[in-house]
Amino acid sequence: MRVNLTVNGRPLTADDVWEGESLLYVLRERLGLPGAKNACEQGECGSCTVRLDGDLVCACLVAAGQAEGAEIRTVEGLAEADGRLAPIQAAFVETGAVQCGFCTPGLLLAAEDLLARVPRPADADIREALSGNLCRCTGYEAVLDAVRLAAARAAGAPDPAGAGPTPERRP
Q1: 65 vs 144: CA distance, rounded Å
Q2: Are 79 and 152 in contact (CB under 8 A)?
Q3: Whole-angstrom Cα distance, residue 32 to residue 6?
């Protein structure tokens, strides 16, 4: 079967798709977008998170055919058109929230989604929004710092204390 998608604003077509293939497989293997990671294949870790028609989903759980005609946004679509990092990406880099990078795409999309809905989230909001994303490297504090930093900058507030990499969190 053929699957037509709009991915990161570009119309794309995947040909010869088996009806049981996941959206994750189509994105990575057929369309050459490796940002979403294949980790648990059970929707438990969040590494394959993408936006499907505006909603966050685990691409490993979505059959490719279900996405026919859908608007998909992957981590590759976060950066600015001129190549500059999106504010949330820059905050992750500055705070040392990027370690091995396997969970990073899902965390970035979940954080971006949160900040679009709740521009000045409390720590409880951040923890809840990121609860579907598992990370074995960061200990999450640097990730929380990154979301706080991106929120403060979007609001024009001074960078929160502790937002940069500390010696114990430096990558």
Answers
A1: 35
A2: no
A3: 14
Task: Let me know: does 27 contact 36? Beta carbons within 8 Å.
Answer: yes
Do 4 and 13 contact (CB within 8 A), yes or no?
A: yes
Sequence length of the chain is 171
Tell me, yes or no, whether 149 and 100 share the same domain: yes
Quick check: 115 and 147 in contact, CB under 8 A? yes
Note whether 73 and 124 are same-domain residues. no
DSSP state of 28: I
Q: List the structure tokens of 157.
A: 């507030």
116: which residues sit within 8 A by CB, 6+ positions away?
A: none
Q: What is the pLDDT of residues 59-100, one digit of tens each?
A: 999 999 999 999 999 999 999 989 999 999 999 999 999 988
The span from the CA of 57 to the CA of 36, in Å, is 11
51-89 burial by CB neighbour count: b if 16+ within 10 A, else e?
A: bbeeebbbbbebbbbebeebebbbbbbbeeeeeeebbbb
Kindly state whether residue 23 falls inside one of the protein's structural domains.
Answer: yes
* pTM for this entry: 0.90
Continuous segment of H or E residues that includes residue 84: none
Pairing status of strand 10-14 against strand 49-52: unpaired
86: its two tokens:
């999106």
User: Rounded to 5 degrees, what are φ and ψ at 6?
Assistant: -110, 115
